[in-house]
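INTERNAL AUDIT FORM
Audit reference: QA-55
Scope: verify that the stored structure record matches its stored sequence.
Auditor: D.O.
Record contents follow.
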Amino acid sequence: MATWSPTAFARGLASLRAFANAEPELSASARADFPTTWADERFPWMSATLMAWTLHGREDAEGRTAADRQLLRDGQRLSRAERGLLSALAASWCSVFEVEEVRLGQGLRLRDLVLDEVLEVKERSLTTQVARYDLIASWVIPTEDHLELVGGIVAIPRPLREHVVVAARHAFATHQPPADDVPGRRRQARRLAPFLFTRVLELLTTERPLLNFEDEPLRLCTARFRIRHPAKVEEHLRRHDGFTREGEGHYNWEGPRAAVWGSLTVEGKVLVLTTHSAQRLEKGKALLEELLGAEAEHEEDTVGPVQSVRGEPARALPDDAPPQLADAFALMLAQRAREELSRGIPAWGGRSASDLMRSTEGRAQVLEWLKDWESQVSHLSDAADLLWDDLYAELGLSRDERIPLTQVYSSKEVPRLEPVRAELTTTELPEDLSLEPLPRRRAFQDAARRKPRRKPPAPELEPGALYAFKLGPFDVGVDGRTSVYVAVTSEGEALPPVFGRRDAEGLEGLARDNAGLKRYCESRLARAGAGHGFASRPMPDSVTRFRAALALQMHWASVEPGLMVMPEVTEALLDATAALVRAEPWESWTNEEVFTVHLEGTVRGTRELSVMGSGSSEFGFALFDRAGSVERMSMSGLPGGNVDVLIPDSLGVTLEDAPDWVVKTVKDVTGLPFVPDVMRVQRNTPRLGNAEELVLAAAVAQALALARPEEREVNVELKVGDLHVRVQLEIPLPLLTGSYVGKLDLLSLATRRPKATHAPTRSLPTKKVSETLLEFAKPILEDVEDSEDPQAELFTCLALALSAWNAVVQDTWEPEKGWVERARATLKRMPRDVREMMLHDFELLVERKRRHFADDPRLLDALDIARRPDDLSVRLAGVVTPGAWSEFVGV
């Protein structure tokens, strides 16, 4: 069979449709297999499925579909592409599939939940619409070396998973061909199309009542009260544990398990109780009568109709919800899943997850339960991925685990549709809510915090052998997408690459000119390479590194044709930037705390460095040629007209997460999914970095990865071929993180303080450290409430105060001095627009600490500002510095 262009596919399908229309009786029989009517606007996939059933699904008395019959009649005069299309359609089948992996813009890995097959499907548009663990019902057609989706595609809500899959598997089992008869099993699955899609339609159109967790019908109910003194009523509500104030005159009534049972609104002399249950309305009225007494007089009730839903309730958040709201929702669901697991799942009959994990069927229950929870937000946010990773690991499960479907869907009866149980809240987002979008979290940020996986080293090639691998596919303009196939010999020589659209084509080209060498390839090429003498084996480490260097070279060349860099230069850059990602310097420094960089060797001079990544979507660093560049950049960002910004001469290193085909090769070497880009700017004109600049970027990245806030400097030397760079990095003191910076382990000191050996000579302060810090910073907090973001402004002010406080404590009691001077030097290198104000505040705070708080030896750490309904709260930790233990603790 052959592949075809979209035009050829449309033309072939139109020809097949005309052929089927010429058989009115058979077409009428196909139509009769489906329901008489359905709403095309809501279920457009039904019409597409009926068309697929008519053209390549329903069989005649001899077991042939319309595609078979046209191929038999007209095959001799059809083109190769048309014959290939008809053959593929004739071999198609339909089923229910679970999405195991989404490769954006490339394809999907699907698990057939009826046949229990794993399929690699090429499909671009659907990759932006589905997420891991989604269920779809669709048609699949085989082509030469892959599978494609065709016909109607319908998304199946996961809560309806068993209702669809168990029914389909039971229907399939009645006429199940032997396990080794793959074509026969697929034909039998295809015959289920009318049953399968009609079943989905019925489930999505059946009306189901909504119940709360106490099995009470959901209906909107209100009770209205006339109140005498609104202020007194609100005072009673604020003091009661069951009511939470959400705003002026608005309260939530909270029930068990943090569910919101209702809401209260006070407007003038009217109090309105709103619930979603008649029973809860009566409970709420009784509670208010007992709480308010004569202050509230009941006037009237309204009870609405019972609420119901068709199919499954809509997602808790819309697809266009603000990113930070989606992130918070994802984290909340992950935490709730963990809580549910610790309490026990009612459907498991009192058995714990650890009990269930002892059997395959129980293991399947736990795994599907996790998938059901995680899939609720898979379309919205990946903020909770690390929490899910931890939960899977704690249970001894893996997302890649495939349990036999006979254990997953073991029910002997198709489940019935039950009422939908849900807790509805009566609160809504305020109409004037203004949320700033949070920067997109990068995959390499999460990967950097996981323990690197150790994989056994792959043996190198024996003499007289070559190893082939594939890069791509990537776009090549009007010619569409192609891949490049490369082979490396056991002597390390890279053979001329071969470009091709299909694996067989590329490997044939490599084999043609290397007949005398033993041939190996990566596993994904094994099937296509078998016919050309290639055997699959693990990729040698040296080839893996070369592949990543070549992928980066090709990626850079696509931006700047003609750029050539030796592999050892690229490998040095990869190693250095991987170390940088794992060090996460953007967690300690902002872009306003300037590093001084002294260079010797191939590149000489003194430069400025600014870290990118604190609160932004760009990660990496900028190395400026001249002092004062960071300040000039900050001043150029001032508002005022459409004036072109002059970018100072600099070398920028940014960490990206695309394109995917390069990311994968880098991840195989470093364990981190990222792509380093090095950009040189001269005279306001950007270009990609050359070999010398890449080595410089690698050396500086190494130094920055080694930088520690408590150290004053770090030195690095890097040699790559004839290029030699020495870096001395002067490290600024991070002042605005709200964390202690120094050489002590405060957590250890707080939990393992030595016992006293003598009576202390001075008394420890008794005031809480949070109150102390607020009093200490009072002179610089006057304008916080009037700022655009009081919470962020309060954190910045208190973080500066914490740094000034700790610097004085360390200079006073610890053996290593100079912390105040180092902080002062950091402030003096900041841009002018923040330097003058912060330096003024810092000097004021240092003097204030020495004059009014000199007897407090506590080091401060872990500053956090939390928002409460009416104000902001401050939390932090305080530990007596060891240098003061003799005086204050008696050690």
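Auditor finding: record pair retrieved intact. The longest strand covers residues 93-103.
Action required: none
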